[in-house]
């Protein structure tokens, strides 16, 4: 338990960096030939959380190479691929340990891993597990059936705390080292500022999230930075902070213009850094830097057979199946985060991206080209 707490704390603080762990097969409990087989990425924090969720079960856990990146980012960016899953299935020895051929993959891997491809090349059927590892026990009790809650990404207060800490820790550590030489007496106030503002921005997220606009057209890079293209919410929060700062300085009798300007500029820099890609720091919005945020998913009703793959992998519960007409519907299309999982998994190619100009991006392009760091589909994934 202590080790788990330490790992969670340290790796949450350093969450913005890759944390690879050893790939291979892990036995949970005393698995036999009928025990379930799970697979995940080799991001260490994810592996530890999955192992904790599997505690008390008898199962096999396959850790595939994702270059130390978390499942969603690695799969979307072409770092957690069909080849990585096929490789771990073939080299881990799990095929000699079980009689079945079913592997449970994390749902968020569906943006980059094609279930049809895995089954075609290995004979293993992919079952998409829940979004969060904590739901695995209930998922197993439900006989591998997911509820809509298990399929949906959320931005809970615990997740917001983790993201705030992820932003605050590295910058406060760097600032503390610099302040030793430049402004030693201000180390504690600066660190307090660097922790306080990220927590203010992310903990208050539910209060302003509905005003964020991922569809707003992109401006030039410099202008984007200065006027907060994703909306002026962070600037408003900074304004409230400035009012607090002025009020505090008056109360303590230290209301010099230099004091207010110095801390005002410093806090503005912190706000700009933390909120530069505010939407991209959340799981419920597409990054403001990604051009894909302007695309929409279009359904070709003539091709759709109502198989329900899109419903099973959509992390925002955009889809519902019309069982009478055997067709997918998108009653919550406005919640789409353009992850492309539905397009990748549809066996009938009934879904595709469409640009604001009506240009069609076919499914084969989404499967083949993944997003690079700045959101361009330039990462070519070869089918091995």
UniProtKB/TrEMBL annotation:
TM stretches of this protein: 161-181, 187-209, 230-254, 260-279
Record key words, sorted: Iron, Iron-sulfur, Membrane, Metal-binding, Transmembrane, Transmembrane helix
Domain 4Fe-4S ferredoxin-type: residue ranges: 295-324, 327-356
GO molecular function terms noted in the UniProt entry: iron-sulfur cluster binding; metal ion binding
Coiled coil start-end: none
NADP listed as a keyword: no
Pfam families for the chain: CdhD, Fer4_7
Superkingdom of the organism of origin: Bacteria
Family annotation (InterPro entries): 4Fe4S_Fe-S-bd, 4Fe4S_Fe_S_CS, Ac-CoA_synth_d_su_TIM-brl, HgcAB-like
Identification of the protein by name: Copper oxidase
Protein's organism: Kosmotoga pacifica
Lineage of the species this protein comes from: Bacteria, Thermotogati, Thermotogota, Thermotogae, Kosmotogales
């Amino acid at each position: 338990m202590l080790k788990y707490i330490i790992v969670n704390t340290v790796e949450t603080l350093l969450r913005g960096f890759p944390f690879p762990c050893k790939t291979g097969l892990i036995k949970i409990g005393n698995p036999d030939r009928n025990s379930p087989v799970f697979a995940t990425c080799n991001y260490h924090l994810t592996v530890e959380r999955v192992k904790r969720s599997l505690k008390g079960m008898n199962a096999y856990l396959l850790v595939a190479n994702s270059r130390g990146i978390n499942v969603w980012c690695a799969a979307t960016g072409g770092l957690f691929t069909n080849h990585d899953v096929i490789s771990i299935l073939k080299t881990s020895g799990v095929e000699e340990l079980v009689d079945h051929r079913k592997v449970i993959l994390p749902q968020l891997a569906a943006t980059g891993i094609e279930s049809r491809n895995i089954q075609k090349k290995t004979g293993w059927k992919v079952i998409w597990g829940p979004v969060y590892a904590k739901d695995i026990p209930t998922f197993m009790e439900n006989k591998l059936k997911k509820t809509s809650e298990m399929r949906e990404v959320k931005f809970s207060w615990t997740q917001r705390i983790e993201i705030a800490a992820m932003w605050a820790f590295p910058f406060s550590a760097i600032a503390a080292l610099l302040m030793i030489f430049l402004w030693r007496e201000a180390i504690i106030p600066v660190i307090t500022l660097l922790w306080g503002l990220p927590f203010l921005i992310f903990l208050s997220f539910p209060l302003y999230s509905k005003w964020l606009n991922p569809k707003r057209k992109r401006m030039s890079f410099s202008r984007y930075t200065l006027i907060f293209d994703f909306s002026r919410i962070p600037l408003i929060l900074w304004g409230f902070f400035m009012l607090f700062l002025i009020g505090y300085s008056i109360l303590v009798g230290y209301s010099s213009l230099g004091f207010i300007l110095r801390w005002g500029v410093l806090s503005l820099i912190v706000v700009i850094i933390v909120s530069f890609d505010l939407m991209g720091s959340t799981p419920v919005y597409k990054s403001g830097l990604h051009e894909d945020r302007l695309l929409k998913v279009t359904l070709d009703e003539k091709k759709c057979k109502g198989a329900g793959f899109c419903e099973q992998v959509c992390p925002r519960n955009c889809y519902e199946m019309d069982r009478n007409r055997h067709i997918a519907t998108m009653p919550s299309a406005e919640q789409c985060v353009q992850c492309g999982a539905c397009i990748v998994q549809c066996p009938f190619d009934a879904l595709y991206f469409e640009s604001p100009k009506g240009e069609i991006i076919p499914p084969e392009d989404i499967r083949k080209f993944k997003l690079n760091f700045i959101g361009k589909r330039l990462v070519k994934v070869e089918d091995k």
